[in-house]
Amino acid sequence: MKATTFSATAAAPSLEALIRLIVLLAAVALLVFGLLFPLFAMLVKSLQDRSGDFIGLANFVQYFQTPALVNSIANSLRVALTTTVVVVGLAFLCAYGITRTCMPGKRLFRMLAILPILAPSLLPAISLVYLFGNQGFLSDLLAGHSIYGSIGIVMGMSFWIFPHALMLLTTALTNSDARLYEAAEALGTPKWRTFLTITLPGVRYGLISCLFVVFTLAITDFGVPKIIGGQFSVLATDVYRQVVGQQNFQMGAVVSVMLLMPAVLSFIVDRWIQKRQVAQLSARAVPWQPTPNPLRDWTFALLCYSVAGIILLVIGTAVYASLIQFWPYNLSFTLQHYTFQGLAGGGWGAWFNSLKLAFSVALVGTLVIFFNAWLIEKSEGYRPLRQGLHFMAMLPMAVPGMVLGLAYIFFFNQAGNPLNWLYGTMAILVLNTLVHFYTVCHLTSVTALKQLDPEFEAVGASLKVPFWTTFSRVTLPVSLPAVLDISVYLFVNAMTTVSAVVFLYNSDTRLASVAVLHLDEAGYFASAAAMAVLIFLTSLVVKLLHTALTHVLLNNAQRWRQAG
Amino acid sequence: MQTTLTSPLTAHSAAKTLSPSAHLSIDGVTKRFGSFTALDNIALQIQEGEFVCFLGPSGCGKTTLLRTIAGLAQQTAGSLIQRGKDISTLPPQARDFGIVFQSYALFPNLTVFDNVAYGLCNRRSDRTAIAARVAELLALVDLSGSEYKYPAALSGGQQQRVALARALATEPGLLLLDEPLSALDARVRGHLRHQIKALQARLGVTTIMVTHDQEEALTMADRIVVMNHGVIEQVGTPAEIYHQPASAFVASFIGTMNFLEVTAQANNHALLGTTLCPCLPHAYTQGQAAQLAIRPEAVALSASVGELSGDVMGIEFLGAFQRVSLRLNNTEQWLLADVPSRDSATLGLQLGQTLGVHLPADAARLYPAGSNQS
C-alpha cells in the first residue's frame, strides 16, 4: 500500500469555520426573532395608546386605577402561593416515600404520578366540575363552598403541577450520602435531629428551586382558571379577556408585563440557587439505602397511593364524563361525544393539527435545540456569541405562555414586518411552541453533552474529520437517550399547551387543546372532556412508545452500552 | 520522512542520523489566560524521528504547550514551524499530527474497527484498503481479533492501544501523547511503556509525550524537556537531566536529592559547617551562601569516622538498598544516603550508630541558596 493512499487532503479549514459561524448566527437569529423581538414589541405596545402613539406609563396608571384588574394580582398571588404550599408539601412527602423508605410498589406509583403531565391543564378543571360542580357527585364535600373560584383553581393546578414537583424533589432526595447518616447513627443522634440537620440541608437547594418552579407554573397557568375560575379572575385570564374579549391589546400588554414580573423574579432566584448548588455532593458519596420499617413504609405507601388514587379519580372522571350521554340525567354509554360533529372547536381536524404540530415541534425542536446546545458546549471561538445564545436559551423559562403568545401577535402581525407571512400558519405555532419549551430541553442537552469526553471533537479534528461528521457519528448517537427524552417532552407539551397558542391559531390551524377551551365555553362539557381525554391518550401512547423505543435502543441498537 | 508500516523498518537511531533536520521549531511561544502566564516565551527544536517528553509538575504548562502544538489552544504570541511550514495560526484540522489523550477519548458507540478507521473513512479510500490498513494497525498494537468489540469491553491498556492505532492510522508526521499511561495501573503501565517506545522506534515517527511521571520520561524519551511555571528549565537526554541538572528545581524534581546549606569557597570548594568539601566547578564568590546538592546513592558511608560524620537516625528498607537518614554532626543538617544491601552488613548498620560520611567531589554540585522550591 502506498503512503499516498491516505495522504492528507485536509478540508479547507476556513470553510469549516465559516459553516460553524453561519449555524451559530442562525441559532442566535432564531432566538432573537422568536423571543427577544416579540418581547420587545410587547413592551413597546404596553407604552402606546390604541392608535400606536407613545404615551409613557399611562396604560399602567389606568391599570392600577381599575380595581377589577388590580384585584387579579392579589388573586393570582393567593392561588399560586396556596398551590405551592399544597403541591410542594405533598410532593415532598411522596418523594420521601420513594427515596427514603421501603414502601412497596414504588415503580407503579412513579408511573401513576407522571400521568397528569400527559393531560392538558384543562382536563383536571373539567373533571373537577363533574366531581364538585353544582351537580357533581362529591359536591357535599365542599361544605357549601363553590368549586368555581379559588378552591377549584388550587385543586386543578395542584393536580397538574404535582408531577413536576415530584420529579424535582425525587432527584434532590436521591442525592444522599450514606456516610453522613452512618456518622449520625454512630453518634447516637435521634431520627428527627438527623432529618433536620442532614436530610433537610441536603435538599435545601432542590427544595427552594422546586418552590419557585411550582410558583411560576401556578401563577402563569391559564387552562385551569379559564375553565373553573368562574368570576374569580387571575392575571393569565385577564390577558385573554383583554385581548380576545375586549380587543384591548394595550391593556393585554400591560397585564402581560405584570405577569412577566413574578416569573422573571423566580427565574433570577432559581439561577442564583443553581449557581450555588455546585458540587454539593462529592464524587465519593455513597448512596443511602433505606432499611425496612413496616410502620413507616406502610404509612408512606398509604399516603402515596391516596395521591395516586386521586390522580386516577380525576382522569377517570374525565374519561367517564366523555363516555356517557348526559350527566347526571342519562348515564348510558355512548361514543357520540367523540364525533364532535357540528360543534365548536374544529373536532378531529383540530386533533390532526395538534398531532402535526406536536410531531413537527418534536422533530425540528429536538434537532435545533440539541445542535445549538452542542454549539454552545462543544465548539471553540466566538465566545460572546455562544454565551449570548446560552443566556437566550435560559430565558424562555421566565416567559409565561400567555405573554409569549401575545408578544407574537404584536411582533409578527405588525404591518411592515417582513415575517408577517408567518402569521396564521402552522409554522408560527411550531416556532412559538419550540421557543416556549426551549429551556428545559436546552438544559437536558447541556447535561448530556457535559457527560461526554471533552476530547471527542479534538480527536475528530486531529483525524481531519469535519465537525458535522463527528457530531452525527458520535455525539448524537451517544446522546440518544437524552435526545429521545427531549423529543417526547416537546411532543407532550405541544400536544397539551394552550396558553401561548390560544392567540396564534387561525381557522386552518385550530388545535385540540384550544378546541377543549371552545367546547367548554360553548357548553359542550362532555365533548370538551372527550377532546381532553383524546389529548391525554395521544400523549400516553407516544410516551409508551418512547419508553419502548428507549428500551429497545438501550438493549439492542446500543449494544455498546453494556459491552463492559 | 514518510514511513509506511510495510516499508522496511529502520532502526530508530538510524532514522535520527539520516534526517537531522528539525521537525518542529517552537519560537517565542507565550500563552496567557488573563493575568496568568501559562507559557512564557518557549523556544524549542524537535528533531525528525525524535521521542521528546515534556516533564513537570501539574500546572507547569506542559499540557498547554502540547495543545498549542496541536492547535487546540491558540498561543498569545510566538510561532510554530512544522517541516518548514508555518502552522502558527492553522486550526487543528489543517495540522499534521495524531493525538492520544489521557482519557483515550475512544468513541464508545463505534467498534474497535470503526474507531481505528475513523480518520481513514474520511479520505474516501476504498473499503478493502481501509480494512487492510486497520488490520495492519491492530496487528501493530497486538489487538488483532478485537475488531468488532466495543471500547467498553476492552481493558484500560487495550483501549489505550486502540487510541494509539487510531492516532497512527492517518500516518501523521507527529504523534502527540497526553499523559497516555497515567490512567492505568502500575503493571500495565510498565508493559505499555516498552510497547509504545518500541513502536515509536520502529515507525520512526516524531513523538511528543506529556507526563508528570519522571520514571516514564527517563525510560522512554530521547530528550526530556523539564518545565516549571511556564518556562523550560532544562532540555537534555535522560542521563544529562539526571546527572547534570541545570537548576535546583530540576535536581529536586528528578530522582531524590540532598540539599545542604553551605558557603561557597574558592578553588571549587564549599564550607559545610566547619568542614571544607570539594565539589564540581562553580562560579560562586568566596563566602556566598549556596546549597550543595548530592544524590543519596553518591554518598559514601564508612565505619571509620573521618572529618565529616553523622548519626544514623532512621533506616528505610527498600529491597536492593537501604535508605539511611543521618544527622550530620557538625551542622545539624539531615542527609539521606543509599547503602546497597550487601554493604550494610559490612557497615553493621544500626540506629544511633555514628558513621563517617564522604561526599565525592564529582557528584556534589552547587546551586543558589533557597532556589529548589518549585
Q: How would you sum up the global shape of chain A?
A: globular
Strands of the biggest beta sheet of chain B: in what spatial order?
6-7-8-3-9-10
> Given the structure, what is the number of helices of chain A?
22
List low-confidence stretches of chain B.
1-19
What assembly state would you assign to the polypeptide chains in this entry?
A: heterodimer
Measured between the Cα atoms of the first and last residue of chain A, the distance is 35 Å
Strand content of chain A: under 5%
Order of the strands making up the biggest sheet of chain A: 1-2
Q: What structural class is derived from the secondary structure elements of chain B?
A: alpha+beta
| Helix and strand run of chain A | HHHHHHHHHHHHEEHHHHHHHHHH
CA gyration radius of chain B, whole angstroms: 25 Å
For the largest interface in this structure, which chains are involved and how many residues does each contribute? A-B, 36 and 45 residues
Termini separation of chain B: 39 Å
- Average pLDDT rating of chain A: 89
Count of extended strands of chain A: 2
Which outline of chain B best applies?
A: elongated
Q: Characterize the largest beta sheet of chain B: strand count, sense, and whether it forms a barrel.
A: 6 strands, mixed
So how many helices of chain B?
11
Report what the structure shows.
The complex is a heterodimer of chains A (564) and B (374). Chain A has 564 residues and is mainly alpha-helical. Chain A is 70% helix and 1% strand. Chain A has helices spanning 13-45, 58-64, 67-100, 106-114, 122-132, 150-174, 178-186, 191-220, 223-228, 235-245, 249-276, 294-323, 347-378, 383-394, 401-412, 426-436, 438-450, 456-462, 467-478, 480-496, 512-521, 525-557; strands spanning 324-326, 330-333. In chain A, strands 1-2 form a two-stranded antiparallel ribbon. In chain A, strand 1 (324-326) and strand 2 form a beta hairpin. In chain A, helix 5 packs across helix 12. Chain A is globular, with a radius of gyration of 25 Å. Chain A starts with 12 loop residues before the first helix and ends in a 7-residue tail after the last helix. By secondary structure, chain B is of the alpha+beta class. Helices cover 26% and strands 32% of the residues of chain B. Chain B is built from eleven helices and 20 strands. In chain B, the strands form four sheets. A six-stranded mixed beta sheet of chain B has the order 6-7-8-3-9-10, with helices on both faces. In chain B, strands 13-12-11-14-20 form a five-stranded antiparallel beta sheet. A five-stranded antiparallel beta sheet of chain B has the order 15-19-16-17-18. In chain B, strand 16 (309-317) and strand 17 (321-328) form a beta hairpin. The interface between A and B is large, with 36 and 45 residues.
